[in-house]
Amino acid sequence: MSIFTENRYKGDEDVVEDAASENHLTALLKKIKERKKRKSTTGDTKNQEHAERFPVAHKKSRKHLETSLKENVDIDLNNTTHNVENQNASNNNQPSLDPDNDPAITQISKSLENIKDPKQDFIVLGSDSHKKKTVVKRVLPDWLADPVLISADLNSGPSLSEFNSGLDDELIKILKKNGVTKLFPVQASVIPFILKWNEKRKMGWWAQDICISSPTGSGKTLAVVLPVIQHLQHRFVPKVRCLVVLPGQELAAQIYTVMTTYTAHTDLKVVLLSGLTSLEQEQIQLVKKLASGELVSKVDIVVTTPGRLIDHIKNTPGFSLTALQFIIIDEADRPIDWLQHLPVPHSGSIPLTVGNLMNKRYKPAQKLLCSATLSQDPEKLSKLNLIQPKLFTSVHPQDKDQDLNLDKKTGDFAGRYTSPDELKERTVECQLLYKPLALVHLLTENETLPKMLVFMNSGQMAHRLALLLGELCKDIGLTVAELSSTLTHNKRKSVLTRFAEGNIQILVSTDALARGMDIPGVNLVVSYDMPKHIKGYIHRSGRTGRAGNPGTAVSLVEPKQVAAFTKMLSGANKVVPNIEVLNFDRLAADMNYEQHVNKLKETLSDEKTHSLKSLKAVKRKHSKISKST
After folding, report:
1. Which residue segment(s) compose the domain that 484 sits in?
2. Do 256 and 368 fall within a single domain?
3. pTM for this model (two decimals)
């Protein structure tokens, strides 16, 4: 019976006997500790004397211990105790053995030494418990460990006249018309690779999937758009052959504009499905009904968001993706659960086998992934069901067998969390109350007033800051606007247009603009609220310093946030900028800051009152309508 097991059905005598046994065992264990202490100072002399004095007992106790450990790891210490008591009872006339030479005590001691602590490890029966364990290292797949390297210098790409990759002359003319005189390194590497596979797919090959991981503004989107358009421009019958999936409406609208610009010389039809119009209106753009009653596609390229794509897959008759040849996934680090809604084989459920290779029906679309923060975790990337993927990146891992702490400590892996060389990063420490004044300081510290994009974590706070900045910057002659999901699409579009044209100099936004958006002329980006993750920092900073143009990204941190901010950057192996500590007491006095803050409180109170009145008016109107009916 184990000493840790309570028998609820014992009588009083048994309880007394168990208590005596436990007390005796406690005494034995105490003697064992004393024996170990003496043994550490006197050496192994007594062990040798013990072996000479009790050779038979020593061998028997050792053999008994080995048998006990093999048959059951949990040794019955109570039985051992009773054996000792019986031995002492039969030798009442003899002096008790010294604890150093008692074979029963030796057996208990060795048993306790060999039993592993279950909280620390476990024993594998039949194995050598003293053998040094092999350190298990994570080994990256070959395609992640051996990528195609891209130059980080955006100015090192070839000019259009030097670029000889088979790119169509019409596309080159459109590039020149749009002011493109040379290609970026990522474009010079990716475009020839896709064009090569376009030729191989004509012979029945399964195309090799591509992942592009490079800093924001390095030309990833155009690198995949141009060869796709060149491959599809000679199609005969309209079918959805290219699917472009993006995380947000604004980014989808931007890529739609790029697609329409470079397909203008072809018969390819591009449609935008992002919820800006009703589902019925989008269905009219997607499919048409023939005289025979058959529903056919009207478009070749679909630019969409994940949610809207699933809506049309489930609810639009005639919307077919069976002819897909390309799936472009921009910002590929976002959730990709929508992939499972695609038809076979584009969902990735068809394995790469000889039989499927010979079956013309099983020819999956080529996936083209673009991201500035591509995951390096093979388990996460496996959900994309990539076929023989190829990685294009600007940074190489240090060692193929390097034990990376995936998605936590990145090392110098695969261009992840990298920023363009043209981007200057700054950190300013100030109290929360003075952050609006820090923005004014950043605007006026140079003679040339910059175009500023300010990021907040919530739309409500963005609205408050926009109101306060509008008052503070009124004397400087700067216009402030806000952009968040609380505004309608038409309003957001109008604000973005005015900001791009320079009619608005300061735009306060949520992270709706942080991913992928290309707004010309932005040379100062400020993270007013500290981002929750390093990805947010990278995407926010990436709105400036794009396409080889200089830019500055500033992070405003409170004193209590400095440690967390430093840990976030250093954990991603990014250089932490020198933290500038500024005092805004004098600026606050000069600008009557307290008066502006009080005025903001009054404005917010008036807005709340007006909102409540409007809500009550709507309720009264609905009440009258319901009573009349």
Report:
1. 423-591
2. yes
3. 0.64
